[in-house]
Amino acid sequence: IKNIGVFTSGGDSPGMNAAIRAVVRTALYHDLQVTGIRRGYEGMINGDYEPMNRKSVSNIIQRGGTILKSARSTDFQTPEGRKLAFFQLKKHKIDALVAIGGDGTFTGAKLLGEEHDIPVIGLPGTIDNDLIGTDFTIGYDTAINTVVNAVDKIRDTAESHDRLFIVEVMGRDSGLIALRTGVASGAESVLLPETDLGLDALMYRLEHGRKDKSSRIVIVAEGEREGGAFEIGDIVKAKFPNIDTRVSILGHIQRGGRPTCMDRVLASRLGYAAVEALKEGRRGEMLGVIHGEIAYTPFEKAIKHSPEINKTMVKIVEVLSL
Ligand code: F6P
């Protein structure tokens, strides 16, 4: 290989810039060229390419977002769109790719690699942590710390006013952000898309649990139900009019901000490993870190969605808030 294309796609996550930097600098170290593809698959199709040098990735390791920008492309979901993308890649003499993103990104990468002759290596960049093949995704650690900081602030005002807060966190298909932040913020209950027992458990607690609590925090993953935290708020208010209840949606604040040390190190290790993997002739795999070691997972397995929810963690939330 002579020229590696690198791009970010789907929802952005803190640490993507550190990953881009690692890919670019490692490739240049090996005397390979690197081309940045802007706006994900959309830009790949439209020819939005820029040659990268050491300077193009200066001063970005600490920045949230992605300097290459990101997008979700519907055109790339069709074989014609992917053909067009491959044509552009050849035109720009790109002969290998590093794709940074989540399940949508790897679904596209898998199809591109199957239909056209180009090696693709994926790096897990999503705050949701919902990929098989890595203990943590790039951005998850920053996002959960953002959530915990926000909930600590909500806890202050909840305590002052003797209120219950229902806090909605991100996770369209996954409760991993909700579960971990629920433990870390001392939540009363967590409501996750993976189980439908959360609301019943919460109602039971409010009816039969301790009455001397001054503040209560409930963490809900956005994908738990269509109506999200507001719907849960209405149910709680209707059944317990004496509990002063408020709803707070944390939203896209969770996707931004300076990446934590953990995310920067993970992104740097994976970006370095991605170039090494391409040099070794690997393709069609997502790289991750499992038990401290680099792990290689075929795309079709990585996108099979959430690792199972750890039931003991759910129990820990419950027991520790009794
Ligand atoms: O990429 C993951 C995620 O953070 C989901 O948890 C969330 O539902 C989604 O992105 C929202 O993304 P957007 O606002 O870009 O549609």
From TrEMBL:
Key words of the record: Allosteric enzyme, ATP-binding, Cytoplasm, Glycolysis, Kinase, Magnesium, Metal-binding, Nucleotide-binding, Transferase
Molecular function as annotated in GO: 6-phosphofructokinase activity; AMP binding; ATP binding; fructose-6-phosphate binding; identical protein binding; metal ion binding; monosaccharide binding
Localization, UniProt: Cytoplasm
Chief place where the protein resides: cytoplasm
GO cellular component: 6-phosphofructokinase complex
Pfam family of the protein (one): PFK
Regulation: Allosterically activated by ADP and other diphosphonucleosides, and allosterically inhibited by phosphoenolpyruvate.
Catalytic residues in the record: 128 (proton acceptor)
EC number, UniProt record: 2.7.1.11
Sequence positions that bind Mg(2+): 103
Residue sites binding ATP per the record: 11, 72-73, 102-105
Pathway it works in: Carbohydrate degradation; glycolysis; D-glyceraldehyde 3-phosphate and glycerone phosphate from D-glucose: step 3/4
Location of the Phosphofructokinase domain: 3-278
Family listed: Belongs to the phosphofructokinase type A (PFKA) family. ATP-dependent PFK group I subfamily. Prokaryotic clade 'B1' sub-subfamily.
Record note on quaternary structure: Homotetramer.
Entry function: Catalyzes the phosphorylation of D-fructose 6-phosphate to fructose 1,6-bisphosphate by ATP, the first committing step of glycolysis.
Full protein name: ATP-dependent 6-phosphofructokinase
Taxonomic source organism: Mucilaginibacter hurinus
This protein's encoding gene: pfkA
